Amino acid sequence: MQRQTKVIAIANQKGGVGKTTTVVNLAAALSARHRAVLVVDLDPQAHATLGLGLEKQQGISMYPVLAGEREIGDVIQPTKWSNLNVIPSEVDLAGAELEFGMREDRLMMIKNALEPVKASGVFDYIILDCPPSLGIVMTSALVATDSVLIPIQAEFLAMDGLALITGSIERLRAGVNPTLELNGIVFTMVNVQARLTQDVIAEVQQHFGEKVYETLIPRNVRVSEAPSMGTPVVFLEPRSKGAEAYKAFAWEFMAKNPTRIAAPAVTAPPPPAAAEKPAAGSAEAPQAAEAADNASSAAETAADESATAEARPGDAADA
Ligand SMILES: Nc1ncnc2c1ncn2[C@@H]1O[C@H](COP(=O)(O)OP(=O)(O)OP(=O)(O)O)[C@@H](O)[C@H]1O
Ligand SMILES: [Mg+2]
Hints:
The chain is α/β, with parallel strands linked by helices and 319 residues long.
C-alpha cells in the first residue's frame, strides 16, 4: 500500500469562521480512521496547537525551520493520539511576516520546508492551519499546498468573502502554483433553521457545485468548549452533534481525497477479509475506493485501531 501525501491548506482571510476548529477536528477524525496526519499550525495565535493538547514552546514551530536554524523533522511533535502529529506554533511566528517578507524565496519558503516530509510518504495528509490574513505566511501556504479547503459561515455577504480567497487561488494558479486546486467549501457553525442560512447555502452551491461539501457542521456548544480541554471534540464528546458532523465530514473528505494507492490486481482470489468487506459495507460507507483501501490494509488497520476510533455501521472488517 503506497501513500500519496496530500497537502491541504485550510484558509479564509476572514477571521473566526471555523478554520482552526475544522483543522483540529478533521485531523482528529482522519487519524481515528487510520490516516497518518500532520497538522502544521501557521497561526501565531497557536489555537490549533492548544486545541490538540500541546503547549507553545519556543523554538518548536515552523519559525526556526523557515529561518534555516532547525530541520523540519526536529519540530514535528506527536500528540496524545496515534496517527496525529503537529508542528506547533509560537509567538515568534508573528515575526515571520516582517522578517521573511523581503526574502527572495518568500513565496516558496513553506513549500521548500515541507518538501522532504511530503516526499517521505509518511503522512496521508499534511493540513495547514492558516492565519486570517492574506499576508506572506498565508500566501506561501497557498503556494505549498495541493489544494485549499475554505470553511465559511452561511451569512450575509458570504459570497463576497469567497470571491476574495478564490481570486487569490486563481492568481496563484496562473503564476507560482499552477496545480493549486480548490479542495472545497465547508459550511461551519450552521443553524439550519435560519432562512438566510438556507438561501446562502443554495447560492454557494449554485455557484460552486460539487466543490461544496454536503456535510454541514452545526453550531454546537460542545465544539466551542473542547479547545479549553486541549482535546478535539470528536474525541472529547464523540456523540455530540458537532463531533458527529466532523466525523461525517472526514468520511466525505477521505472519499474525495484518497491517498492510498491500492496494490495492482492479482489473479489469485482475494483474502477472506477483503472478500467480506464489500458485503459488510452499508449505505453509509462512503465509496468503493475507500472499502478497497480499508480491505487491503486490514492488517495495518487492525494494528493501529485506536481506542478513540468510532465504530460505524459497515466497519466490522476494520476492527
Ligand atoms: N461548530 C461550532 N459550533 C460552535 N462554536 C464553534 C464552532 N466552530 C467554531 N466555533 C467557535 O468559533 C470560534 C472561532 O472558531 P475558529 O477559531 O475555529 O475560527 P478561525 O477561523 O480559525 O479563527 P481565526 O481567524 O481567528 O484563526 C471559536 O471560539 C470556536 O470555538
Ligand atoms: Mg484559526
